[in-house]
Structure formats: C-alpha cells, structure tokens
C-alpha cells in the first residue's frame, strides 16, 4: 500500500526540521559504538568492582558473553510495577540460558499519579520523568552493558526511560511490560460513583468500595490512560515484543514473553550479527508511527507532552502541528474507556494492537519499513504470541475484529479523525482531545471564571457558584509555575455541571489526565501564565470562544492585547512534599509545546 500523503508530508517535515540535530545525534552514537564492547575498556580494578558480587564473574571477566543491564522501576506502590519484583531473577536465569550475563544496573523512581491526584505531590509528577532519565543515565554510566532492558509501564516512567535509552543510543534497548490487571468494576460505573460523591448523593464508604473494586490487583489500571498509551507506543515504535503489551501479569504467557525479551536483548548486541542500537530504531518514522497509534487508539493527551521530549533525546524535533495533521488523517479505530465502555483487556481480546497495526499498514497510514528489536519491518507486529509449552511462538494475529463495538477496521472506523486538535489564537497554543466529547460541545463561547488553582474551583463548585455556561480558566499550572500537575480531579465536577445542562469547558496551562473524557478541555496552553503568557491577561467575565472545529482559542475582550498580565503568589508551590528540591526543574523547564523538559 502506498504511504498516505499526509503521513509522508509530516515525516518529511520532521526530517527537514531535525536534519542538523539528528545528524549530530547519529554521529555521537556511532562514535560510542565504534569503541566496541564496553567492558573491554575498563581497567582490571574497574572490572573487579563491577563483578565482585556476581556468581558468574569469571564469565564476565574472561569471555565475550554479552552483559545485559536491567533498569527497573519496580516498587510496591504502583500496581503496574509490583510484578517487576520477580523479573531480575527470571531475567538472570533466561540470560544464562541465552549465553549472556545479567546485572541490575539501577533502579529509577516511579510515582503513582492515581495516588497523588489533587495533592501537592502531584507537582513533582511531570519532573519525575526527567529524574527517571537522569537516574537511568547514572545506572548506565558504569559502561558495562552491551544491551539494556527497561522495566517500566506508567505515565512518566516510560518517557523517562526512552529519553535515557535514546541518550545511550549505541546500546540496544528492549522494553519489558508487566501487563494490565484483570478487569474489575467497570470504569463507567466507577465514574458514576465519583460524580455521585461530588454531588453528595453517596458517602465516602460507597466511593471507597467502588474505587477498591476497580483498582484491585497487580497490573496497570485497565482504562486507556497514559500508562496503557505508553504500552501501545512501545509496540508501534518497535521496542516491545509483538503482542506483549496487554498480557496480564503473573501468567505463564507473561513469563514466557519476558524470557523471549531476554533472548532478544542478548541477540541484538554489537557482539553478535544483528546489532540493533536503540538510536537507530528511534528515528523519524518510529515517532510518526507512534503518533499514528496515539490517534488511532484515542490515547492520552499526556503523550503530546512526552513524545516531543522523547524525540528530542534522539535528535528528532516534533511540533504540535505534527500531531494535529496526523490526527486529521488517522481514523479512530478503538473505543476504550474513557472513550467507550470497554477496558484494555476487552480491547486486547477483540484483536488488540496486532489487528490495528495490520489495518493501518494496509491503509498506508504507518511506515512499514522501520527497524525494530525483532527485525526489520512493522509487519512483524501484526503477529500474536501464543504459549507453546514454556516457550512463545508467534502466529498470524486477527485479520477481522472480534468485537466491532470496541475495535473497528480502518475503512469503517468510529470516527474519521483521531480527535486531537491543535488550538491557536490570542490565548496561545495548546491542544484539545475531542474523541469523547459530543459534537455539540466542540464550540463553546461563554464567560470566563478565572482561578489560580484547582482547589478554588472545588470551593466554587461546592458553593453552587456555577449557574451559567462557563469556561473555567485554571492558570499558573504550567511547568514553571508548579510543575504542571494533572487537573483530573476537576473532571467529576465539570461533568456534573455538564449533565445539568450547562455548556462548560476547561482552559488551562496545566495538564489533564489520559483518563479525561467528555468535558472539553483546552490544555497545555503555551506560553504559560507564570512567564507572562496570554492566560495571565484573562479576567472574570471575559467572553472566550473555544472552537475545536476551527482549532482556535480566543479571548474576545477588546482590550485584551494591551492588558498587563496578572501575577500570582506561587510561594505555596515552593515547599512541602519535596517541592523544595525541584526548584531547579521549575526554573528551567521548557515550553509545554516542546515537551516541558529540563534534561533535553
């Protein structure tokens, strides 16, 4: 199938924009690769330190067996990462069988946004991505590894690990998932109880019961938020084994896939005949394929923030216009909560990523000629893993959807576009996700209510102050103001107002979770208010027009352009819950439209 003209045009635009930075990057990783196996350059004393606690230290010191380094985000706090506790032992055994040695190179922090939503700790969340990248860099700085295996799943963890994998791009990188928890209380029922709690219809006991029935075991949360969007990206970009993203934890197939990942990591080092450095996989085509997957699945808006930072680490420069143009050309093929009632387990059972990749390849919407960890060509990712004894074999995946209420063919999608829109106007640049927003709510013109934090919005809601169509402006929420926390805790209240018949929308320089849905939310507005961006000039009562159809966001006040920007007292964001230590990140964060990064 001929490549779609828009996909080709966007890829060419990215390649041209990135010509200098990508060329410099490739030269850098080529120089690193030319030095040969890393351990060969260590002194005897260096090596003795590196191998002192290893059972197979003689193999490491005297043979050319590849040494695999594990970078793990294991902790008990995240259900998605708890299964990683047992992975190092399994990987060591599999490595020995594959003729490789294995060491845990280091651990990285992994926080749970579900725990910190609406709390001060959420102000560290975005910057944890950069901390994870830095921690991974420390782990790999020992220069002992011929390949790296990255154990991570959730929101900032995978983007941080990708930044590190790209920075150490001469080393092959294999990403290893843990899988989603089994289905629990349906997500729409959980959401209904949250709204009932917001209005006082049910008490905390009922809310707690619903939440515990939804988040009930080991594995990723089952809605299609940022964590599961990350897993999709790793397949679309060729860094997972095919079909491995949504296999449940602690199952024989999950363990067999991990063993196969070890074997692949051992096979693609520079010491063998199929060298596949991460930096060559992470090229312009891979990132375009990732954006296509984001749109086709209706994935998290957080990846519009993360992908530019991930790509920049590999010398690839993305812009939100790239996301917009791809969204306009890629059909929405999946309905997974919050864009539908199904969860990721239902999506996987309906044919999952293999079916979707096959459909998009046939439609000419993906680059087929890419390098992946399993070989050349994305066609390999249409296969489905099956257990054959204790081993994995891959067979042809689904060629027809097994549930067209969840997964549709590219020729007959749920919507003709991916639902992500670029917004631009006198209020700045940002994005809106409309795949779950009713068409009659794509254009809202209403008076503004201006707030400087989400807690003020909650107070106004509880006081019954929202009685007319309103655009809720929550500003001073950008990376330089307070770390750009997600404002997902506002969703139940705004949904209640919408259900009462009001037209409401959120406008913010902050973030909204991948779990957001039916309420229009113009997010990532840049430049942010704390650096004098246009949001700082908005006043209560200003009429704002949000037009997701035309892609515009404007304040209609006659004197808007000549107003002095408001300032806010941000001292409360500077301390408590570790925020003192993150002043460097707040002071040096980039624009949200460029990934809001500090380290790249």
What's the quick description here?
This protein has 600 residues and is an alpha/beta fold. 37% of the residues lie in helices and 14% in strands.
Can you give a write-up of this model?
This protein has 22 helices and 16 strands. The protein has helices at 5-17, 19-34, 44-51, 57-62, 87-97, 113-116, 125-140, 157-167, 187-198, 204-214, 226-236, 252-267, 278-281, 284-297, 302-313, 320-329, 344-349, 352-362, 454-462, 479-482, 491-499, 583-588, and strands spanning 67-72, 101-107, 147-151, 173-176, 371-372, 375-376, 383-388, 391-396, 420-425, 428-433, 443-451, 470-474, 504-508, 521-526, 543-547, 552-555. It is an alpha/beta fold. It is globular, with a radius of gyration of 24 Å. The chain has 3 domains: 5-182 and 217-396, no CATH class; 187-214, no CATH class; 420-594, Glucose Oxidase, domain 1, CATH 3.50.30.80. A hairpin with a 2-residue loop joins strand 5 (371-372) and strand 6.
Give the rounded overall mean pLDDT: 93
- What amount of the residues lies in strands? 5-15%
Q: Which residues sit in consecutive blocks of at least 5 with pLDDT less than 50?
A: none
The helical percent reads 25-40%
Biggest sheet strand line-up: 9-10-14-13-12-11-15-16
Q: Count the helices. How many?
A: 22
Bulk shape: globular
Please give the domain count: 3
- Round the Cα radius of gyration to an integer and report it: 24 Å
